[in-house]
Amino acid sequence: MVLIADLRLLSVLILDKIPDLVSLPEGLFASASLSSIKILSCPKLHSMPLEMQNLSSLKSLTIRWCKELSSLPQSLQNLTALESLEISNCNCLISLPDCGIGGLGSLRTLSIENCSNLTSLSSSLELLTLLEHVTIMYCPNLGSFPAGVQHLSSLRSLIILSCPWFDSLPEGLQKVRTLHCLEISSCPNLTALPEWFKDLHSLRSLTIYDCPNLTLLPLGFNLLTKLQHLSIQECPELQERCIQGSREDWLKIAHVPHKYIGPPQVKRPRKESTSGSSSVQASFQ
């Protein structure tokens, strides 16, 4: 049996498929050498350690399929080297800790998926000025996107999938000059893109999928001169308006070199998939 005291030089910790684990042993996170932690398929785990200040080298934290996990500690803010945070299939999680998230000054990737009871994201999200990639999927009870998006000055990709609360892009997004990739999928309450959408001058890839009530593109869409990839699928009226030729929105998109308008070529990933993250993140140099 390995003692906790023997783990001081551990750099990667994976806890996988431990059905009776209720809480993590005291001292498990004592190693200042830990760079990656994955906690997977621990259905009875209900809390994380309150004190996490020793993890000064931690760069990646992944928590998946821990359905009894109800909260994350405020001490999350001590993970000052953390670059990637993924939380998925944690159905008892209601909110993210405000101070805890705001202290993650090195965070570059944030993914929140399949957290069916999550009602709010941290209001301190705006403090994450190095954050580059944000994915929010299958979180039906979120109230809205937090304010302060304009302060995410490094944001490169934003993916919103199957979130019925999502009915408009956050106003602050118009001031983000680094956004390269935007994907909006299965958001039935989205009825329009804002007129300021034309101000997203850095946008290179746009995917709109299964947003049946989105019926037209905003004026000035043709000013997105850096847009290289455009996909519009499962949006019947919008697709009709974008048919090549004399249709109303064709002139707005004619300049885009790579576009696909029509029925999906492949099926979208199912929500109940247990193979991990189902999103595809585009990266542009």
Silhouette: elongated
Count up the domains: 1
Mean pLDDT across the residues is 87
CATH superfamily: Ribonuclease Inhibitor
- Residue fraction in strands: 15-25%
Task: Please list the strands of the largest sheet in the order they lie side by side.
Answer: 1-2-3-4-5-6-7-8-9-10-11
First-residue to last-residue Cα separation: 47 Å
Structure annotation, total helices: 3
Structural class designation: mainly beta
CATH architecture: Alpha-Beta Horseshoe
CATH topology: Leucine-rich repeat, LRR (right-handed beta-alpha superhelix)
Given as residue ranges, the uncertain stretches (5+ residues, pLDDT < 50) are 272-285
The helix fraction, in percent, is under 10%
Largest sheet: number of strands, sense, barrel closure: 11 strands, parallel
DSSP strand count: 11
- Given this structure, which CATH class is correct? Alpha Beta
InterPro entries: Leu-rich_rpt_Cys-con_subtyp, LRR_dom_sf, LRR_R13L1-DRL21
Domain R13L1/DRL21-like LRR repeat region: 171-235
Biased composition (Polar residues): 274-285
Pfam families: LRR_R13L1-DRL21 (PF25019)
What this model shows, in words?
By secondary structure, the chain is mainly β. It has one domain (7-261): Ribonuclease Inhibitor (Leucine-rich repeat, LRR (right-handed beta-alpha superhelix)). Helix content is 5%, strand content 19%. It has 3 helices and 11 strands, in the order ββββαββββββααβ. It has helices spanning 98-102, 236-241, 250-253, and strands spanning 12-16, 36-40, 60-64, 84-88, 109-113, 133-137, 157-161, 181-185, 205-209, 229-233, 258-261. It has an 11-stranded parallel sheet. Helix 1 links the parallel strand 4 (84-88) and strand 5. The radius of gyration is 21 Å and the shape is elongated. The N and C termini lie far apart (47 Å). 34% of the residues are buried. Residues 272-285 have low confidence and may be disordered. This is Putative disease resistance protein RGA1. Residues 274-285 have a biased composition (Polar residues). Residues 171-235 form the R13L1/DRL21-like LRR repeat region domain. Keywords: Leucine-rich repeat, Plant defense. Residues 261-285 are annotated as: Disordered.
